[in-house]
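Hi team,

Below is the intake form for Virulence factor Mce-like protein from Hyphomonas adhaerens MHS-3. Please confirm the fields before the structure is written into the shared record.

FORM ID: S-0412
PROTEIN: Virulence factor Mce-like protein
ORGANISM: Hyphomonas adhaerens MHS-3
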Amino acid sequence: METRANYAVIGAFVIVATLAVAAFVLWLGQSQFQRDYKAYDIVFEGPVSLEDGSAVRYIGIKVGEVSTVRIDRADPSKVRARIRIDRETPVKTDSTASIQLAGITGVTFVQISAGSPTARLLEAKPGEPVPVIKAEKTQLDQLVAGGAQVLGQANDTMERVKELLTDENIESISTSLKNIETITTKLAADDGLIDRATGTMQDLSRASTEFASASESVGAFSTNANQELDGLSGQLGDLLTEVRNVVASADAVIVQGKDTVSVVNTLLEGPATGVVEDSRLAAQDLRILISRMDRLTRELEQNPQSMLVGEPVPYEDKR
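The structure came back. Fields below:
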């Protein structure tokens, strides 16, 4: 009886000791885990392609993993992800988290940005169990969110392609291709046509070069002619001024001559009448000469070039 009682006590002691050791190991492991890692929450807008155990990287370096992904209790349209990362990771107040693709494998991970050097470390706000990192939308998020729209546009594009590729359009395209093939075959068979086309292009090139040279010559001639005409116009202006002065002096002489003739005609009679008549005729001839000079002056003012090139020859139709 005593032997059985001793065995029971020993067995109970062994069980209690084992449970105590297991509890101590669990407590020690949990304490060590809490000392090495720190938890953060990330709230994403809309659907995300993220799973439990996905890697968490800080500027490309793996520092932890995603522990849980669930619907946000405050807003069912959002997704809240709990991550645990190395406690020494400097997550700043302006650090952001985004979902990235790992190469071409399609595996997603959480990328945390470094933030600015002057920013403070991120801490939990009052009422929050853990600090919350701001989520940033990436091209992957936009692609996932706009997947339905992209598929709709792709369907519309396929419908338009089907409408374009009707039997009638396909037949028209086939006919056009056959015509192009016929033309290229004829061009390949007729080598002389290609040579003639090449010669024509060379002739056109030479003609354009000669035309450019002729244009430059005409431009230089026009410039010289304009300079000569400008100098001649100045000389003609001086000549016209002198002619005007002569005409004015002649008018004054005529007036004085008329007055003199009137006085002499009054004083002289008899034998002096012939002299007076001759003076009157001379004055008349002088006035005619002055009128012609005045007309010539006006013509020179209106068209000074006629003095150099003459009047234009009238066109005669010889047909």
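SUMMARY LINE: Helices lie at 2-36, 139-145, 147-164, 167-189, 191-267, 273-302, 306-309.

Thanks, M.
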